[in-house]
């Protein structure tokens, strides 16, 4: 909330203009100054400045709410992905008011997810949509209007059989191509007005990593700090916008290879390349601080050239789980409504709302990658993080 613009806090236009001349535009900018500095910059008396600081503090302070109030609004807390198994695991879909990151290797389907979500956001509410506009910030020139229309017409053929509906949908997706870090930052600074004018119910930044990684060589001294500051600023602005407008913000990220022990890798590491190497592992780019900025992290990864997986790697409400998908004409298609155990790749029956944790014993169809081959394997039907942590601990102790 500290990123809130001063002109949205009730401060007079005249004072806002005076402060803007000194690059004081947000609550944080103003509240970082001493009263004497504000007096000089805003041309106000000491008494006026104290009142100004108090009203701005109040305007950006998070308001208190009870769990009961949040519970009552739960139907309005998520944006459905139209993938029922993923929605069930995420307790309704992508959370509004927070940041969701989709990260994965090139060509795995991150931009396809973004385009599909754009179509969904424009749909009427009775179809699970948000009946809203979309702000789509494209930093890789990967957005395709043809593909957007193809996804819409293939996924909802009955609804988009009328040309007017297709035109209306496409007209609600507002595309900004921003190809440098400064352009992205400037766009985010102006996004508040754009959200209001386009009635946006969804903001997409595809991708947050590409411009940052192009411009910042973090092996050079000082660059890592600059990059962290830039990412911190972007995350703060996006979080503020997500909260202020109660909308989902979706970001895409790339992957990177780290040199180090396999045992050091966290839940965000990828299968495949990492398992074949002794001295490296593949993980989400942009570092640890960034990973704490996103509230939900979905990892997309290849199983083979056709088959891919979505991993719920970080979520305050969902278990750590894996879903198989393919990219089709209609966008993302889940291959089954089942989820996989992250430690052994075993498929669980569809997780339904009433699924209770139950013990599940089965014969493994293939040798367990992390344990000595055994004829049977027992674990919980409900996938838990414990299961994955246990598996990683075993993997690290084996690699030592
Ligand atoms: N019309 C289509 N039908 C089926 N698959 C498609 C279609 N268009 C793109 N794809 C698939 O989408 C993948 C590229 O996805 P994309 O979202 O651009 O990747 P990235 O993760 O790099 O953003 C490719 O595997 C491509 O085959
Ligand atoms: Mg892409």
Structure description:
- Keywords: ATP-binding, DNA damage, DNA recombination, DNA repair, DNA-binding, Nucleotide-binding, Nucleus.
- Belongs to the RecA family. RAD51 subfamily.
- Pfam families: HHH_XRCC3_RpoA, Rad51.
- The protein has 400 residues and is an alpha/beta fold.
- It has three domains: 6-60; 76-337, P-loop containing nucleotide triphosphate hydrolases (Rossmann fold), CATH 3.40.50.300; 351-399, no CATH class.
- 39% of the residues lie in helices and 20% in strands.
- It is built from 15 helices and 17 strands.
- The chain has helices at 13-20, 27-31, 35-42, 46-60, 67-72, 84-89, 110-122, 145-155, 163-172, 181-198, 208-215, 223-245, 273-276, 287-293, 385-399, and strands at 78-79, 94-95, 99-103, 133-138, 173-177, 200-206, 249-253, 255-259, 280-284, 296-302, 308-314, 321-328, 331-334, 339-340, 347-348, 359-363, 376-380.
- The strands form five sheets. A nine-stranded mixed beta sheet has the order 5-4-6-7-3-10-11-12-13, with helices on both faces. A two-stranded antiparallel sheet has the order 1-2. Strands 8-9 form a two-stranded antiparallel sheet.
- Strand 10 (296-302) and strand 11 form a beta hairpin.
- The longest helix is centred in the middle third of the chain and has 23 residues, at 223-245.
- The protein is globular.
- The model is unreliable at 272-278 and 348-400 (pLDDT under 50).
- Residues 110-111, 140, 142, 206 line the site of magnesium ion (MG).
């Amino acid at each position: 909330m500290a990123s809130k613009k001063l002109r949205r806090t009730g401060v007079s236009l005249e004072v806002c203009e005076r402060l803007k001349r000194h690059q004081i535009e947000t609550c944080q900018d103003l509240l970082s100054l001493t009263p004497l500095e504000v007096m000089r910059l805003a041309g106000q008396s000491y008494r006026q400045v104290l009142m100004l600081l108090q009203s701005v503090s109040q305007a950006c302070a998070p308001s208190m709410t009870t769990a009961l109030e949040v519970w009552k609004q739960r139907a309005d807390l998520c944006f459905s992905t139209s993938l029922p198994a993923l929605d069930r695991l995420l307790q309704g879909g992508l959370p509004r008011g927070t940041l969701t990151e989709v990260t994965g290797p090139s060509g795995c389907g991150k931009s396809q997810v973004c385009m599909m979500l754009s179509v969904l956001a424009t749909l009427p509410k009775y179809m699970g949509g948000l009946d809203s506009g979309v702000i789509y910030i494209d930093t890789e020139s990967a957005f395709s209007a043809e593909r957007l229309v193809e996804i819409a017409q293939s996924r909802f053929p009955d609804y988009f059989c009328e040309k007017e509906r297709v035109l209306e949908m496409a007209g609600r997706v507002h595309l900004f191509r921003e190809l440098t870090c400064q352009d992205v930052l400037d766009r985010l600074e102006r996004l508040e007005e754009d959200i209001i004018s386009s009635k946006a119910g969804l903001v997409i930044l595809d991708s947050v990593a590409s411009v940052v990684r192009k411009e910042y060589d973090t092996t050079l001294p000082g660059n890592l700090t600059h990059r962290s500051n830039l990412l911190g600023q972007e995350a703060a602005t996006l979080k503020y916008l997500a909260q202020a407008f109660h909308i989902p913000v979706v970001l895409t990220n790339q992957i990177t290879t780290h040199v180090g022990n396999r045992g050091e890798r966290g839940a965000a590491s990828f299968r495949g390349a990492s398992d074949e190497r002794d001295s490296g592992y593949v993980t989400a780019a942009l570092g640890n601080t960034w990973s704490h900025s996103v509230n939900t992290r979905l990892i997309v990864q290849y199983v083979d050239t056709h088959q891919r997986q979505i991993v719920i790697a970080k979520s305050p409400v969902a278990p750590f789980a894996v879903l198989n998908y393919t990219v089709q004409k209609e966008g993302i298609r889940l291959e089954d409504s089942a989820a996989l155990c992250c430690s052994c790749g075993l498929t669980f029956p569809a997780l339904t709302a009433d699924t209770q944790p139950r013990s599940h014993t089965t014969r493994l169809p293939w040798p367990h990658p992390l344990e000595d081959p055994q004829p049977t394997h027992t674990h919980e039907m409900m996938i838990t993080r414990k299961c994955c942590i246990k598996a990683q601990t075993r993997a690290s102790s084996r690699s030592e």
